[in-house]
Every structure is written in C-alpha cells, then in structure tokens.
Write a structure and sequence with these properties.
Layout (H helix, E strand, L loop, with lengths): L1 H42 L3 H15 L8 H15 L2 H32 L2 H4 L9 H21 L1 H8 L3 H21 L5 H29 L14 H25 L2 H8 L3 H36 L3 H24 L4 H9 L8 H27 L3 H22 L6 H40 L1
Amino acid sequence: MNSKINGAIKKNKSLFLNIVSSVGIKGLSMIVSLLTVSAYMFYFSDQQVLGVWFVLVSILTWILTFDFGIGNGLRNYLVEALVEKDTIKVKKYISSAYILLGSVSILIILLGYIIIGLLNWNSILNVHVEVLENKFLILVIRIIFIGIVLQFFLKLILSVLYAMQKTALSNLISLLSNTLILLFVIIYKVEDVKSALINLSIIYIIAMNMPLVIVTIIVFIFPLRQSKPNLKFWSQEYASKVMKLGYMFFWVQITLLIINLTNEFIIIRLFGPQFVVEYQVYNRFFMLFLTLFSILTIPIWSAVTKAFKENNIGWIRKTYKYLNITALVVSIFCFASVPLLQYIVNFWIKGNAFVVDFSTAFLFATFNSLMIFTYSVTCIANGIGNLKTQMYCNTIAAIAKFPLIWFLSQFIDDWPAIVFVNIIIMLPSLVFLTIAIRRQLFTLTKDNSKASININ
C-alpha cells in the first residue's frame, strides 16, 4: 500500500514540476512573441506588407495540421509502449511514424511547389501588384512553404517529447525559435519592403527548424538512443494503428483549423490586409490566456492516457475537476484584462498604437474563454481516446462558420463579426462535449465499482 501511495505522490510531483517548468518557459516564449509583433511594425514600413506576412504565415501554418494525425496517434501509443518499457515496440512506433510522415512530406513538397507557381497570389491575398508582384510573392511563398513542410516533419519529435512527458523541452524549442526571429527583426533594418520580406522568410524557416533538428539529435543520442528511427523497424501493423487513431485526430485538427485559422484569410479577402494587423493585435494578446492554459493541458493529456491504461479513473475525474477550476480562474483574468487593454497596447506597440474598441476586446475575451473550457474537456477526451464527439461537434461548427459569416456580413460590415461567429459555433460544441465526457467518466467509474465488488 505504501509503495502505491509513494508512487502516486512521485507521479503527481513529477507532473507538477513538469507543468511549472513548462509554464515558466512558455511564459518567456509568449513575452517574446508579443515583443515580436511590436518589432514587426517597425521592421515593415508598409502595413499592407505586414498584413500579407501575417496571412502567409497563417495560411502556410495550416500545413502543420496535415500530418493525418500521425503525431497525436504516435503520442498516445508511445505512452503505452513506454509504460510497458518495451524498447522494440517503442522503436517500431517511432520508426513507422517517421517513415510515414517523411513520405507524406516529400509528396506535399512536390505537389505544393508546382501548385504555388500556378496561382495568382495578388488576387488571393488582395494586394495590389504595385506593392508586391505575383512573381515575387511566388518566390516568398515557396521559401516559407518548404520551411513549413520541413517543420511539419521535424515536429514529430514534439510528440515523442510529450509522450515522455518532457513538455518543458518542447516549449524551450518554441522559445528559441521566437527569440531568433525577434533578434533578427530588431537588428536587421532595410527600407526596401521586398528585401525585408524575403530575408525574414529565410530567417523564419531557419529559426523554426534549427532548434527542432538539434533537439531531435539530442533525444535520439541520449534518452532514446536504442529507439531512433530505423528503416528496418518499419511495421505496417504499427503504422496502421497510428493512422487508425491518427485519422480521427486529423479530422479534429482540420475542423479546428477551419474554425480558428481562417480568420486572417477571411479578413484580407473581405476587408483588406491592413485590418489583419489590427486583428493580430487583439488575437495575439487574448491568445496569451489560451496558450497559458494549453501549457497545463499538454503534460496532463499524456498523464491521462497513462492513468486510463492503468484503469485509474478516479485520478482522471479529479484532474478534470481541477482543470475546470483552473479554466475558470484563467477566464476571469482574461475578462479582467479588457478594461486595461488600451494601456497595455499603448505600452506594447508604442508609436504604432491604435484606439482599442472594447466591444471587440470583449468578443475576443469571450471566444478565448470558450476555447479555454474546450481545451479542458478535450484534454481528457484526447487522453482516453474519445474523439468521435469532437469530430461530430467540430464538423458541424466548421460547416456552419462560412454561411453565418456571409449572413452577418449583410448587416455588419466590420471584421469583428467573424469573432462573433466563432463564439456562436463553438458554444454548442463545448456544451455537447462536456456532457459526453462527463457521461463517459461516470460510466467508467460505475464499471470499475462493479468490477471491484465482483472481485471482492
């Protein structure tokens, strides 16, 4: 009995330390990210070009979700293999996932490189040819595209780190990348917007990928030196298992992409690139609260998977309760920041500050609070492998988004309407997800109690 208690204490202490270190590192990363937004405004002399940069990175970052859920599938199965301390199983899962994702990456690069050259990006990005001609945009987009696809492949190491519950290390990668970009934007100054854009594109892909390469080498030389990817350990069975669970994660990712990452593109098409900059200021600030909460859920997700494999449903229910309490606290701070936002913006972006619209700020606070509670429930759902409810709810929300935006645009000719639509579509999704997970946890607890009675 004492050994079980000591084991539980050790497990909770390890999880707590992991969360604390993750919060500290991610906190620094968020500060660097905010400073980068301000630095961007001084780096680019033309706000339209800055708007184009934000949209390009947003669009091409969509690619990172197109891993067919391989990363998340690997993460859940790897936890199981690590708990069993089965080195061969670990190596087969890692090798199969890397080979699978590597093949997908090569295919995406070949197809994407060709397709990019066939499109009229001036029309897509709603930017005049006198500002940036299509030939130049194609060059910039191809550079960022190739870098993003490399990141798409290299980010698989993050799933390995999450499975090992080394969340702090994964956050350190983000901090290093953001710091490198910030330093470049502060130090490098050029009046020509084309030179500014092309050089930033090159530095961006180096900064995003170099830390991932370094960490990948370190992980497979030291803690997992016996489990590094190897063609000989490719397994169709293991790849299929990762893909079977992964495709559900993939579908959830796609729907969330449509809900969360299409806003910049819609704004640039309906209102113009200059309004994307305004959107980014609000979004980057209020995303801090969501990002802060997501730091807590990353290590808890893998811990929930581990507890689920060990049939420790009581611990999962307690964790879910604490997550909801934490979500409430973070949401209160999110809304409390609304009256202070003008002072924060004035300090944050100084000479480029604008007048804060508090109704818009309130919409962002509401949406991010909804997403915070959504992260709370999906953290548990992902850990126990309940993805069907998310698939159904998010699919309906994603389908409803564009018709609602079109309908509201007939009455409201302003970009904050897009944020309002996101609130409308995500509220029912959160309600149904919460009901489904609470029912499942209740059923699992009831089944465990019956099993315990039968054994006695």
